[in-house]
Amino acid sequence: MKKITTASLLEMKKRAERIAVLTAYDATFAQLQDRAGIDVILVGDSAAMVMAGDSTTLSATMDQMLYHVSCVSKGIERALLVADMPFLSFQITPEETLENAGMFLAEASAEAVKLEGGKPVIETVKRLVDAGIPVMGHLGLTPQSIHKFGGWGVRAKGKVEAAQLYEDALALEEAGAFSIVLEKIPAQLAAKVSQALKIPTIGIGSGPDCDGQVLVNYDMLGLYEQMCLKFVRQYRKLGEEVRGAVKEFITDVKEGNFPSAEESYYTETKEDENIPHYPRP
Ligand code: KIV
């Protein structure tokens, strides 16, 4: 078992080995995914949606993210652990941003942070990298800007936005980012950006030519049923499994079939002599 680091990802790109990334929010899923051999675990601010039940990622807070990252870190031995910086945790003063990013590494055992945006975050990225904090960029459909975009549609379909995204990707690399997530952009643009960069791109809804792919674990397992996205491949339908198991449990309890004698504890004697008798008042 060789620990994955930011340097390993660069090596993987050099030898054209695809990078597999999944999100996780708790130690149990993190351990299952780590043992299965996932390369990177991202504690996404999608936690606000799949954990907290909100309709966007905007409500995720530093405290919540620190908690999830810390839980996930306890399940990981091999994968690189990346913490997503929540809305307004890095669009603030440089000092506060550095403090927030640093907390993910110092207090929650993350090994890198991810932050959304292009040009406006370049100076921030430089500052964090200079301070020894590896940064993953995130371009395209950046969910923290959902209200600016006005919906979850594909980004950078037009020439101007595509050119801006291309420039942003180069600038993020120049600023020291070790990788960039490309979310929901045309496959041709993602291929072009991936070719132009030395650092790996991680696609989500951005076609097959990125250097790696990321999915939200609850999406690919069929657990999150509120949104059905074209780019999500459901590897299992665990939502159906969970509903089925819960229904069986309910029936067993209602019909007195759970617990069985084997699932119960008894004293040695058949009588209830070990159980104290209290006189009735
Ligand atoms: O928050 C998240 O889960 C993400 C990934 C989907 C890239 O940003």
UniProtKB/TrEMBL annotation:
It comes from the Bacteria. Its EC number is 2.1.2.11. Binds 1 Mg(2+) ion per subunit. It holds the Pfam family Pantoate_transf. GO terms for cellular component: cytoplasm. GO terms for biological process: methylation; pantothenate biosynthetic process. The keyword Metal-binding applies. InterPro entries: Pantoate_hydroxy_MeTrfase, Pyrv/PenolPyrv_kinase-like_dom, Pyrv_kinase-like_dom_sf. It is an enzyme of class 2 (transferase). Mg(2+) binds at D45, D84, E116. Pathway: Cofactor biosynthesis; (R)-pantothenate biosynthesis; (R)-pantoate from 3-methyl-2-oxobutanoate: step 1/2. Residues 262-281 are annotated as: Disordered. One of its GO terms (molecular function) is magnesium ion binding. Keywords: Cytoplasm, Magnesium, Metal-binding, Methyltransferase, Pantothenate biosynthesis, Transferase. 3-methyl-2-oxobutanoate binds at D45, S46, D84, K114. The active site is at E183 (proton acceptor). It catalyses: (6R)-5,10-methylene-5,6,7,8-tetrahydrofolate + 3-methyl-2-oxobutanoate + H2O = 2-dehydropantoate + (6S)-5,6,7,8-tetrahydrofolate. It is found in: Cytoplasm. Its cofactor is Mg(2+). Homodecamer; pentamer of dimers. Catalyzes the reversible reaction in which hydroxymethyl group from 5,10-methylenetetrahydrofolate is transferred onto alpha-ketoisovalerate to form ketopantoate. Belongs to the PanB family. This is 3-methyl-2-oxobutanoate hydroxymethyltransferase. It comes from candidate division LCP-89 bacterium B3_LCP. The gene is panB.
